[in-house]
Amino acid sequence: QLQFVESGGGSVQPGGSLRLSCAASGFTLDYLAIGWFRQAPGKEREGVSCISSSSGRSTYYVDSVKGRFTISRDGARNTLYLEMNSLKPEDTAVYYCRGVLACDSYLRGFGSWGQGTQVTVSS
User: Fold this and answer.
1) Which of 7, 9, 36, 117 maximizes the CB count within 10 A of its CB?
2) Phi/psi of residue 29, each to 5°?
3) What is the DSSP letter of 29?
4) What is the sign, positive or negative, of the torsion defined by CA atoms of 73, 109, 27, 95?
5) What pLDDT score was predicted for residue 85?
6) SS3 of 64, please?
7) What is the pLDDT of residue 99?
8) CA distance 65 to 87
């Protein structure tokens, strides 16, 4: 069974940085397209970024995070990362990772959600 455990969230000031991790089990991450999603208070969950399987090597970012966030994976650790720089208060949300059917702007996820990791950006 495919499972994800997210970590690395925290509280930072605007302009700060965080690196989120998503440890996968039950599947080899290299064979899977996978994405990061987030849900801000009072808002619907939205797709943030994705990376194709290692054979595809393509990435996608929603416009609001382009140039600030970087998605990557470590096959040896079976872990996905999201490097977040120049954080803004509007990035405040619970962040989740999930498998996606394809890495594209639709970010169609599948499988269960993990517990997520909270990111708070505030002065």
Assistant:
1) 36
2) -60, -30
3) G
4) positive
5) 98
6) helix
7) 93
8) 9
Q: Are 80 and 51 a contacting pair, CB within 8 Å?
A: yes
Strands (E), the chain: 3-7, 10-12, 18-25, 34-39, 46-51, 59-61, 69-74, 79-84, 93-100, 109-110, 117-121
Q: Is 47 exposed, middle or buried (0-12, 13-18, 19+ CB in 10 A)?
A: buried
Q: What is the pLDDT of residues 17-62, one digit of tens each?
A: 999 999 998 889 889 999 999 999 999 999 999 999 977 689 999 9
Q: Do 59 and 103 form a contact (C-beta atoms < 8 A)? A: yes
42 CB contacts (<8 Å, ≥6 apart)?
none
DSSP string, 90-116: GG-EEEEEEEESSSSTT--EES-----
For the chain, how many residues are written? Answer: 123
CB 20 within 8 A of CB 117: yes
* Ramachandran angles phi, psi of 30, nearest 5°: -60, -25
Q: What is the pLDDT of residue 98?
A: 94
